[in-house]
Amino acid sequence: TEMDEADIYLKPFWALNQFEYTLLLTCPMGQLSPLLQFQNELHRQRLNYTFAHLADFAKSKTPVFVFAHILAPHSPFVFGEHGERVNGSSDRSIETGFRFYGERETYVRNYRAQLCYVDAQIQKSIDSILAHSLEPPVIILQSDHGSGSNFDRENLANSNLQERMSILNAYYFPGKGAARLYPTITPVNTFRILFDEYFGTRLHQLEDRSYFETWSHPYHFIDISDRLNSVRGPETTATKAQVMN
Asked: Which of 78, 121, 181, 225 would staple 88 via disulfide (CB 3.0–4.6 Å)?
């Protein structure tokens, strides 16, 4: 998601992009403690930079589309609950999404602490956007996957699908747009509903389904929708749409 061809592209001048960061991790020197701490510090600063500038264009007098990919609460875990520095995780299996091999209690504790900080920063950004926007904005706050304390990218049977497939999926749709949202919406329909409601398109909705694929066979999609629904039960869904008022 490094879309540097955008009209305006913001990033700290000292930050590594995701390719450079991943490449560094594959080098022997990238595993040395000082470099790991340096990488964690860069990651902290990059995330804080995004939080600080997310609302920069709220006062724009012309229409803007602002996109930010915030790689958190995804590991590495570099923030404590109140934003304090922590050493972060050197477990590459978490960062690349293959499988978690460490102690689950440690993962859950670190994930929760980082989530608390990220949550607070996002709420501040949204409050600022709403306070300074000249017209009611459209806001989509959407994660790409859930946590992975019980996730194995190569083994469907060994993965907690409800944990991995559950996402935060929150919308601020001004006017009557919120009426088109529903509890079981999945990201495939997010922009279809948005464009049809606010821009007069006729994209229409697709069926909300969920799929699993392995790292070794990335184009072999396994439909797990029915399995997820049976786990959730009739009154709950893994993907929830929330209207932010």
From this structure: 78
